[in-house]
Amino acid sequence: MKSIRRYYQFKEFRENGKRFRKSFFDLIVVKKDIYRNRDFGLAVITSKKIGNAVKRNKIRRWIKEYFRKSKNCIPFNTDYLVITKPGIFEYGHENIIRDLKNAIERIRKIYL
Predict the structure, then answer these.
(1) What does CATH list as the number for 2-110?
(2) Which are the contacts of 92, defined by CB distance < 8 A and separation ≥ 6?
(3) Residue 96: is it exposed, middle or buried by C-beta count within 10 angstroms (0-12/13-18/19+)?
(4) What is the pTM assigned to this prediction?
(5) Which of 4, 5, 68, 84 lies in disulfide reach of 41, CB 3.0 to 4.6 Å?
(6) DSSP code of 89?
């Protein structure tokens, strides 16, 4: 899993990304043409509206842990951007993981 940090990478999400909306987060996907040894990029954006730094970091850890544990199920040569929405922390860990699984399955069927 590769971290996405550069401006031009986020610009690519805006220009070429496919957005999948859920109730408490948006998942934006960009398929890459370059073969990167079964690797994918991930970025998680959490705003201050979600809560204090502890809550925001916990949500980031939950999402990154899901992607790290399910590397084999996630399509490679693809970059992912997760934009969280207010209320996600109260939504709970299990519900977030369930929605991520559903979104990834939908991506595999529709987009990739």
Answers:
(1) 3.30.230.10
(2) none
(3) buried
(4) 0.89
(5) 4
(6) H
- Report the C-alpha gap between 27 and 71 in whole angstroms: 17
Write down the domain spans for the chain. 2-110
| pLDDT (tens place) for every residue of the chain, 112 residues total | 788 888 888 999 999 999 999 999 999 999 887 766 668 899 999 999 999 999 999 999 999 999 999 988 888 788 999 999 999 999 999 999 999 999 999 988 887 6
Conformation bin of residue 71: beta by default, left when phi > 0, alpha when psi is -120 to 50: alpha
Could you give the C-alpha distances from 52 to 37, 44, 47, 86, in angstroms and in order? 37, 16, 10, 12
Task: Return d(Cα 49, Cα 69) in angstroms, integer.
Answer: 28
